[in-house]
Specification:
Layout: E1 2-6, E2 14-20, H1 23-36, E3 41-44, H2 52-56, E4 61-67, H3 87-106, H4 118-127
């Protein structure tokens, strides 16, 4: 399984997780957030980041990020500064990520299936422009 991190430690926005893998992993992450008192918005989808090539080659991927509206925390431009980062938030974010990674790494049997479900293969094909999205 690939674990991808984006914008960890940012004080703006909400913490999200995007799973390009089986839906069960979404529930696992959501339950873990509840258990640890760490709010996380989880969905099954393709995340536009470094995890996508792994998922495209059959490696389940989960991305964790703190996302904010574009007018609150601009990223990858000249307004992307350390002013939006706080050490305290970095600790909270990494504590959750460590808890997740430790559970995955130390599981007696890895709870994540080593395959990409068909609905995610379809979304990857659309994201990577190998297929057109179905008409709504």
């Amino acid at each position: 399984m690939n674990i991808n991190l984006d914008m960890i430690g940012c004080i703006m926005g909400k913490f999200i997780s995007c799973v390009t893998g089986e839906e069960r992993l979404c529930h696992y992450i959501s339950y873990l957030g509840d258990e640890l008192g760490f709010p996380v918005d989880v969905k099954q989808d393709v995340y536009s980041s470094d995890s996508t090539p792994f998922a495209d080659k059959g490696v389940p991927a989960v991305s964790f990020a703190r996302v904010a509206p574009s007018n609150a925390a601009a990223i990858h431009n000249r307004y992307d500064t350390m002013a939006l980062m706080k050490g305290e938030q970095m600790v909270l974010d990494t504590d959750f990520l460590i808890a997740f990674a430790e559970r995955m790494a130390n599981a007696v049997r890895c709870p994540v299936t080593r395959e990409i479900p068909e609905n995610m293969k379809e979304k990857l094909d659309i994201y990577l422009c190998r297929k057109r999205a179905p008409k709504q």
